[in-house]
Batch of 2 targets.
Target 1
Amino acid sequence: MHRLLFVTALLLPLLTQAAPAPSATTQTAKMAQTLTPVEALPLAPDFTLRDADGESYRLSALRGQPVIVNFWATWCPPCREEMPSMQRAWESLQPQGVVLLAINVGESADTIFQFTGNTQLDFPILLDEDGTVSEAWPLKGLPTTFVIDPQGRIVYSAIGGREWDDPKLLQPVLELRRPSTVAQHR
Amino acid sequence: MTNNGLRTVVGMTLLGLCAAVQGETVYQRDPQNGLESWGWHGDGASFTFTQRLPDQSRAYFQGRGLTPEAAEEVAMACVFQAIVRNDTDLSAPLELHLADWRVSDAAGRAQPLRLEAEWQQQWQRLALTQAARIAFRWSLFPSQQRFQPGDWNMGMVTFNRPPGSRFDLDIVWQQGDEPRQLRIEGMRCAPDQPI
């Protein structure tokens, strides 16, 4: 037990991550910048969640504009790694009428505060502490990101991290602002 | 027959039916921490497995709310960090079921991985908190997943072998309509020693 405590104290940054940071960093260079069309266009499961400041967000209240919904956790290396690019994407997308919501899976507000203390994130970070919303959505692992069209349908998905400020990746999202864009692409 | 039993039979059958694949197996040892990793890249897919020391797993899972006893059980189950990626430039999805994978010891005895559903039954018996069970669920590599081109995922797998033991890993997956299989030989669980 003493050995464990000693090692834990010395190596806390490494031990509390799901994987050593170099592994995740290695992945960044290999990221394929793709959004996969979701052919069935299922209606996105509605939710009402609060952010760390207590403000409430309901997905269905955002109809009429594209919404990016990202599922993540602080202990997930690729989730952390894509957050800065997500912040830059949000700075570009918000003035253009696209909403970005990041849903944290299963962690407390305190844990998220510790993370955002080191990484500036201005977009809404919602708390799914009991995992109910995450279970209702079609995701298997973290991070997973969905793009919702103005009609509330899931139109794209991305499993694994991406560089979200890549214009090529964001173009299909911006095109959703035009009516019938999805129908034109299918 | 239970679902698990049926999947076991299917998995063993798949190992006999799948086509072997072309690719490159890569072994690396991190000079900083000594952790070893094995990977394979080719044919539109890549798999990477990196050792996790038992101490890493003990600390990580206790930090996520598992009791010391529960974290110890995971730590001794040969934990690796897995990364799977669909690298194809075609539109073929990659689909895998970890229940189809096998680890074989030196004598050729094959056994399945220990998957999340089995762990969750144990956590229910041990009455772990909901927060701990949620963290555990999302920390593990999904037991089944479908990756479209460009998709990838990272998560922990438990090969259910003793620390320090060697084994061969048989991986099967589906790329588009084509079943594929791969054997990575000479993998080793991390020894139970401090970093």
Target 2
Amino acid sequence: MNVREWALITFTILAQMSVGSFIVLGIVHYFTAKKSGEKQADELSDRALLAIGPVLALGMAASLLHLGNPLNAYKAVTNLGTSWLSREIFFGVLFAVAGAVFAVMQWKKIATFQIRNLVAILAAVIGVALVYSMAMVYMMPTRPSWNMLTTPVSFFATTLLLGVLAMGAAFVANYWYVQSKNPGCASEQCVLLRDSLRWFAVASIVLLGFQFVLLPLWVALMAGPATASAAMLVGEFGVVFALRLAFVFLGAGVARHLFVPRGVESGARKSDGHGRVLGVRARPCR
Amino acid sequence: MAKQLGFYFDATACIGCRACQVACKDKNDLVVGQTWRQVVEVSGGSWTAQENGTWATTAFAYYVSLGCQHCEKPSCVEVCPTGAMTKRADGIVVVNAEQCIGCRYCEWACPYGSPQFNEAKGVMTKCNFCEDYVAQGKKPACVDACVMRALDIGELADLRVKYGSVAQIDPLPAANLTRPSIVLTPHAKSSTHGDVKKLALDKGGMK
């Protein structure tokens, strides 16, 4: 197996995870604020927000390990005119700065709710530009198997999927924490946490399903201009590729099993109404 | 028209001896794993049974010797995030080790396998057209080493007048991708698919 590019893969995954987490958390915050007010929404998302920074920092540190000459790394943004790699690093740093500014404002409650919202939207847009640049790095006419629509589409799908899963993990941790302080918690926060987790589970299953469709589509698209690459995929890398498909399928199953409470499956089949959150039996609160 | 130096290669003359590859390695003191000039073998054809019990064949083989193509539209220069990879006024594409961060993006972008990574130095290296020799009015080491006189250099416009404008024979990618500054005399059996693929480099057992 090719392990030469592990630093690059780590960077790509962690950067996508941080952008996805930021966007997913923003969506959760938006709907929670609409439903239960700004204060509840802040309480729900503030702890998870602080987890995003270290993820991005770790990813950027990993990217340095990819370089043969990391001491020169600061020069990587000097060819913004034609190099998508330059743009990737530029937007990466910009996203880190904007995200950090927002996190500090949000944590210390600096400025009004509206101004903080604007900063968050700006950071999210920069994050989208970052993921787009990351995908465009691979869009080269001289590499026909990468130079396909499936590259940016799968980058964004992965971004959202990693965001949902990372925030799912953060919310589960938060849920455990709240439960340990207040067993059998029936406060609005606990309800909101459970509701969010349920949506995360549904979203991750949908996104995993989407990726399951995307992978074979990519192979089909390659048949034209990149026959040699397609042949490698079913030959040399066939086992790895099959494993990837199997893991996507397995992931959807695990997500469904862990997060979607049985009662949600079918309204007709009444269950006891207890949701399961990663093995923790949650008591009904409504 | 802007000045652009280029290589000429005659596929009808090359015997695949790899003297050019060795001369390049020697002149540029290349480490194991690096071959700025690479000779690739292309073969094909088949055998068909005839009615009289004999077999007819269309089997063929020819060689292509490639340095850097010093492209008119070099993808390595375009993608380089630091500007370490540049195209000089005379058309030679060079990499500045001082600027290079060793991200190897040029290695991905080049369809000819020209930029090559030096593990020990952590930077990219590539064929520089023997710029020092050229500056002294001499020819690159590969050209002078060729026993079949299959290689030459010159002003690209002059080479095209003299030898035509073929820049794409198997196993080379489509010439419109990077507009390589090379003129080829194709072998009689050369096809010109321009099918982009990573060159399956057969370095003749040499590393």
